[in-house]
Amino acid sequence: MLAFARYFVEQAKANNMGTFYWMGLSDGEHRSVPEFNQADLKDAIIKGYYGEGGYSGISPTESNELQPVITGCYDLTGRSVTTATRRGVNIVLLGNGTARKTIAP
Predict the structure, then answer these.
(1) Distance (Å, rounded) from C-alpha 12 to C-alpha 7?
(2) CA 15 to CA 26: how far, in whole Å?
(3) Which of the chain's termini has less CB crowding within 10 Å, N or C?
């Protein structure tokens, strides 16, 4: 399964096709916190897309960064949620027209 997942993602990227895999990466209690219960499958998918080195594009933010203005907040199903009650992984729309993925316990 791991070799196939990596191969599939490699081929999809080579042919300019997007992929989305959800079920099995995070089930049950793992969905209430930001963790994968099949971390090896997650790694195979990431290496299939980014290569053997994996993903290294996350950089720390500066501590003096201004607090962004939030214009909307949505869960992964696209439902609007208030910023005060959001839990789990959310997409937050910012006042400058960009979006960020956030994780709230």
Answers:
(1) 9
(2) 27
(3) C
Nearest to 26 by CA among 17, 34, 36: 36
Give tens-digit pLDDT for 10-59: 999 999 898 887 666 777 777 677 677 888 888 898 899 888 888 776 55
For 60, the enclosing helix (H) or strand (E) is none
- What are the tokens at 43? 């790694």
Residues in the chain: 105
Q: Are 72 and 102 in contact (CB under 8 A)?
A: no
What's the predicted TM-score (pTM) here? 0.49
